[in-house]
Amino acid sequence: MAFDVKKVVTDRTSDGTSVFADETRVEPSSVMAMPGSELFNIWGTGDGTPFVGAGDNPATVPFPFFPGPGGTRFVIVRFAPESTPPADAGPEEVVAEAEEKQPGLVHVFEPDTPGMHTTDSIDYGICVDGEIWLELDDGAEVHVTPGTCVVQQGIRHAWHNRSDRHCTMVYVLVGAERKSG
Questions:
Q1: How far is CA 167 from CA 18, 37, 81, 117, in A?
Q2: Alpha-carbon distance 53 to 26, whole Å?
Q3: Domains plus CATH for the chain?
Q4: Range of weakest confidence among 23-27, 48-52, 156-160
Q5: Whose CA is closest to 45, among 66, 24, 59, 25?
Q6: Residue 2: is its pLDDT beyond 90?
Q7: DSSP letter for each residue of the chain
Q8: What are phi and psi for residue 108, nearest 5 degrees?
């Protein structure tokens, strides 16, 4: 099934009039590190306090993939089934290609525990199609289906699509500072 993503961005002119600043299709990105999956980088704000104004709103900051403190990212991920064959490439090539296409994506993943990762962010996610399993570091899992909203608070986790079709998740990532202790 084709998944067509359209982005509509609003802004204000210098005299304060609301306008449509952008209305475009968003092309998916794919990386060998996630075979068969698609990533749609919709929008992002720089780290720190975001601002809005009269005609001087900043452009999108989609990378690095995971924002720093105060930054945000708006992404759609279409997870392919886990049965999708892996890329026919070595680990160095997979990482290099991911860093080129989706800077900052793969460095959070644990090489010895496939799929497991931890981010310094609060992630709001909603399943809009398909199904997926969310696994935590102790092996606990929850089945995520359309309409399920997930709030992740900087935890170690992995996503597993054990079905035979794509699962589409929509995320807003908010960069946070990690407390130690």
A1: 35, 9, 8, 19
A2: 25
A3: 5-175 (2.60.120.10)
A4: 48-52
A5: 59
A6: no
A7: ----EEEEEEEE-TTS-EEEEEEEEE--B--TTSTT-EEEEEEEE-SS-----SS-PPPP---SSS--TT-EEEEEEEEPPTTSPPPSS-HHHHHHHHHHHSTTSGGGB-TTSTT-EE-SEEEEEEEEES-EEEEETTS-EEEE-TT-EEEEES-EEEEE--SSS-EEEEEEEEE-PPPP-
A8: -85, -15
Neighbours of 165 (CB within 10 A): 14
Which tokens in the block code for residue 2? Answer: 């084709």
> Residue 101's Cα: distance from chain center in Å?
13
